[in-house]
Sequence to fold (157 residues):
Amino acid sequence: MSTGVVIALIGAALATILAGIGSALGVAMGGQAAAGVVSEDPAQFAKVLILQLLPGTQGIYGLLVTFIALSQIGLLGGSVADLTVKQGLAFLVASLPIAIVGLISAIYQGKTSVASIGVVAKKPDQFGKAMLFPAMVETYAILALLVSILAITNISV
Fold:
């Protein structure tokens, strides 16, 4: 396996690892807040579960970028490309937007979800409005996802 492929694999792994860590932390924060609400009012389970799960999307985005990168490299059923170091670095850099933004946005989306869960605890009829707050944080994860996908799919292999 060439050095270029190894560097590209590091980038692909970082997309999944960092975005996944952020999602795990964000979902955990939401879960702690949701458990408190459900202990007081079990009828709010579905609403707070949705809010808890929102930060989990960044981990999915990181995994998606990893699969696209592995596919481009040829590690998902094709013949493995013999990448130069320059091409490997291109994959690494292309993976960084979702890796870094996924990590940070998932954590902050978790914090925003906690606040929104607090809104639902006090005013369950305001669920729709409460859901908009963490959804706004999601916008930046989606932008990072698009940048990584566009960058990876435009690397000549």
Summary: Residues 40 and 121 are 9 Å apart (CA to CA). The helical segments are 3-40, 45-53, 57-73, 85-122, 127-153. The chain is about 80% helix and 0% strand.
